[in-house]
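Might I ask for a little of your time on a matter of protein folding? Here, with my thanks, is the record as I have it:
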Amino acid sequence: MNYLAHSARPDRGISAQPYSTHIANVVRDAAANASGAAAHSARYGKLLAAAARLAAEFHDLGKLDDFNQEVLRTNQGKMLNHVDAGVAHLLKNKRSGSGVLAAIAVFAHHIGLPSWPCEKTRGAGTVLRDTEATTTSTPLSERTNERLDQYRKCHVPGATSLTPLVIPEEMLVENPLLWRLALSCLVDADHTDTARNYRDPVADQNPPPLDAVARLALLDRYVADLGRGREDQRSRLRSEVYRQCRDFDCSAGLLACDSPVGSGKTTAVMGHLLKVAQAKGQRRVFIVLPFTNIIDQSVEVYRKALVDKGEPAADVVVAHHHKAEFDEPATRLYSFLWHAPIVVTTAVQFFETLAARMPAALRKLHQVPGSAIFIDEAHTALPAHLWPQAWMWLRELERDWNCHIVLGSGSLDRFWELQDFVDPPTSLPQLIAADVREKSSDAESRRVTYRSYPEPLDLDKLLKFVKKVEGPRLLIVNTVQSAAAIARHLAAHLRGEHVEHLSTALSPRDRKATLELVKLRLRQPNHRDWTLVATSCIEAGVDMSFRTGIRERSGLNSILQTSGRVNRSSEFTQADVWDIQLRHDHLLRPHPAFEGSARILGELFNENKVSPEFCTEALRREITQEGMPKKKQDILVAERNADFPAVEELFRVITSNTLTAVVDPDLARRLESREKITRDELQGGSVQIWQDRANDWGAADFEYLPGLKKWTLPYDCFLGYMAGVLPLIDGGKFGFIV
């Protein structure tokens, strides 16, 4: 009998896929995924490879049930849970570590990883099993048990010759990261073969290699060309920083890079990572940035510096702007994967992937083992209470999966030296020598002056304040809504040419265009009376310099980072960075996540402690404030116990769920006509909106693309999607935080 894995699509001329074909393909791809990761772990590599292979072979065993075969042949009705049979088969040998790990992956490959504490409280024979009643009122697990031998006989005979590894069960419970990696290997293979069967585009399974030796040679040449003929102090500093980073000892696996503003950190740390990748046989480089708008700037530099002639630059260095994870078959082709040798992504995407439990989010995780990773602007990457668990993951990647990790910043919080974060506290080697850091610190202390305005400002008072300080001005506030409301108000009273606006209300393509315009305006010395209104997406890692900085009170790190965009090259003898507070109303909204850090910054201003040397002190105060120790501990306990839903819920860099909404009308039209577009096109023409506001904002569904939304309110390249939202707020329909 010809058993099926996927139904036919007669409307697209696609035949049903045989079960044996699907299993063979998924086994091949899952084994390849696992092999790539396993090669970088002497401790867990064999276990991961065996588990991924077993999971791939038996993940669809339940599809062999007669009832499910009828559904697949007729393409009518709903199948019984086809996962339970594979779980039952793999759990037969409960002392088989690879079998249990494979069973967990099979169980989770549609519904996500479970709460292991809850599973362990279930009765004997029901752990990871589906005990819901079928149409005949019999629990599915009973039906599975009765028919398991029949499924095995129908299964591809002799498809596996692997002997499961027998290990203590505790090894699995103590390593939730291993569970996530096993699921990642399986899901990526399953989704890839399903897409291939239905003739949907699939990611390149053979991307260019990292080839660290060749790319380091290209980078050396690029940096040398940049410095040729330049003998000023800043150029000498950049050359020294690059040399120190590139030639630093590769033996340590976790380092810090306290790099000063304008020191060429982008290329210097990349030189170190490529040297390390060469020494340690690593296969990939990750650049993890705090904000999406920095990505394009960094990608542009890396493509110029690291891509050889004739190579497709977009395949060597890829940009992952925002969440692009889709579980439905019709939209999986737009999921962003980490196949390229150099991946530039955000802290949100990187760390929430490590914390994830759902298949679509975890699909790319198996690409991380064997990577050199740079967490840039580490102090802004995560809220304080998330760092203790993030540190545990980074140490695990370094210790067990051959990852090399550099934590970088121009104002580094040394949280690893605080017992509230790391127990016991530790010290990290510094990539840049102390004398170079001291030279730059002396210059930093003279570059800007920090001032605090004593009174809260409403829109009109803020307008008056902005007009008094010298331009060009950078005004950063805490919410997307406040930024849009202020930009609109300033534009109405100062004429539009005096105001620019930048936030995630704009699509990546429009943010990039705005950044280019801002850089152009900054190069015009006779045109200074203008203001860029932005959110925190601009405060770190962007190479631009304003005359005056204005920062809504948020935290010490934020105002220090804002200063990095002011008088950046000491082109002015003196420059101010202002701390302000807004008078909040229906338009100017507070950000609850910054309440504690803002209060601490107020304390530091009163104590005359607003400078980089007090960053660690500010972080210590933040983690010990009311409620923070419990938040930190809850995440650590949930991860230690493999309570995956709890970890995913508690470890949120962005606290609200978001959806991808297409704002480009032409892109929406092409999607509606079922034209295939690329992942980059989708990211460039879309934004992230709050899931719980999608209906209020009129975001419409695409008929054939579940999980993807179409923006229907006004959108423009100045205010982005807030061009449609602000009028709703003006009309009193909403008053909420964006």
Notes: The two ends are 57 Å apart (CA to CA). Residues 411 and 612 are 5 Å apart (CA to CA). The mean pLDDT is 88. The longest helix spans residues 176-197.
